[in-house]
Amino acid sequence: MKKIFVTEPAMPPLDEFMPYLEKIWQSKWLTNGGPFHQQLEHELAEYLGVKHLALFTNATIALVTALQALRISGEVITTPYSFVATAHSLLWNGIKPVFVDIDPHTFNLDPKKIEAAITPQTTAIFPVHVYGTPCNVEEIQRIADVYGLKVIYDAAHAFGVKHNGGSVLNFGDLSVLSFHATKVFNTFEGGAIICPDAKTKQRIDHLKNFGIADEVTVVAPGINGKMNEVQAAFGLLQLKHVDSSLAKRAVIASRYRTQLAGIAGITVPEVADPSLQNNSYFPVFVEAEYPMSRDALYTALQTENIMTRRYFYPLISDFPMYRGLPSARIDNLPVARRVADRVLCLPIYPDLPLDDVDRICGIMRSWAQAR
What we know:
alpha/beta; 36% helix; Aspartate Aminotransferase, domain 1; aminotransferase; 3-stranded antiparallel β-sheet; Aspartate Aminotransferase, domain 2; 2 domains; 7-stranded mixed β-sheet; 10 helices; globular
């Protein structure tokens, strides 16, 4: 029986990639803002509907650099329900994370909890568009404006996601995308910062290249965050196929919703407008009515060669470097705790056969009926 992974990278045909590699080989321009790098920045900005985009070798360095670019310090309000890179980027900048609970429906940072967490040391709000579902960007911006705070969105899951007729990436001061191999759009590893203007992009471009402005001038203590030409070339090829990949994901997500309907103890989150989603993940929630716990179901599916992920469990606030913070207390994060203890992300990727979706759902249904 074949193994079904929770996600697999979309891989365009190899023969389509070879001409890109041959051009890199012939030009001998491997990194440092080569022609494919420049082309990908332009084409991605156009595709996503954003003004400026700075490519990075990975999204974690992009997060670290975004905080540097806006000179964020002190305390930053963020979510415990995310991948650890969100909070790690704060620690790498010497910033104290302040965790706030999440909304029970969107799983994003709950705006109603933000104001109570603001102190004189707060300089920014750092939300995540979890599973590609947009945060309440209007309310977050209202709060930021009242208190004079910056807003940086961790948009790792939000490639191509729309909000109010435009890209969700245009909200906040900066947004950071991930192009990791498991993402909707990938460059093996990779990431990008969405910049509102050319001046901000220039500062970010300096920061990702050691702070170098020209051959004899260093303007900031930068880092090496540049994307190389092979990554950029793969991204250009991926971009040709991304609409097809998104369409396939939508079909798979729809099939899951149909097949999981009516299974006692399995809850599928409601989606206001499926056409605005990118289906980067397919989370379900295992309730008390199901005959086994979430962790037992996770293990049982593995015995059927079905690999799922408890995404996001544990909470970031549970890890040793964070759990001593006052904001990490269990009583401060009841919704995040409940969501993290119930969530299970099922396999979803463009080439996942619908027969496999049916088999996964059938197994889960049979176990529910055997109660």
